[in-house]
Amino acid sequence: MSDRPNFVLILADDMGYSDLGCYGSEINTPNIDSLANTGVRFSQMYNSARCCPSRAALLTGLNPHQAGIGHMTADLGAPSYQGYLNRSCATIAEVLRPHGYATMMSGKWHAGGDYRSTDPGDWDVGGPANPTP
């Protein structure tokens, strides 16, 4: 795996484009700036006013409605608004694992499901196939 790059993907809620030093902020963010200056950073991405659809898009590479999270995590009775990632979409972790990457997620999931049990998408959250950090 030494020929594959390591990477960290950071999603932070409630930040504006210029809230980090690497994007021109007056706020001192040296550690994030160092990561940004030696790596690759996004300059354009779809962003929803709600965090759940943005997370779904970043995790899957799909439009949030295609991933099943068109609004928040409540099931509104339509496939695009089921409130959890649907089983037909793969997350970035699911795509990377077969290629030798070790993956983990830390922080707020907020892409549907109950952290303490099996979520509505039949994903065994915290089970042997999908352990939580």
Query: What gap, in angstroms, lies between the N and C termini?
Result: 22 Å
What is the helix tally?
A: 4
Report the principal-axis shape: globular
Low-confidence spans? 115-120
- Helix coverage percent: 10-25%
The total number of structural domains is 2
**Helix-strand pattern, N to C?**
HHHH
Q: What is the strand tally?
A: 0
Estimate what percentage of residues fall within beta strands.
under 5%
The largest sheet, given as strand count, sense and whether it forms a barrel, is: none
Radius of gyration: 16 Å
Question: Mean pLDDT, rounded to whole units?
Answer: 80
Backbone structural class: mainly alpha
What is this structure's SSE topology?
Layout: H1 30-37, H2 51-60, H3 64-67, H4 92-96
Could you walk me through the main structural features you see in this protein, from its secondary elements to its overall organization?
The protein is an all-alpha fold and 133 residues long. Mean pLDDT is 80; it is low at 115-120. 20% of the residues lie in helices and 0% in strands. It has two domains: 1-44, no CATH class; 47-133, no CATH class.
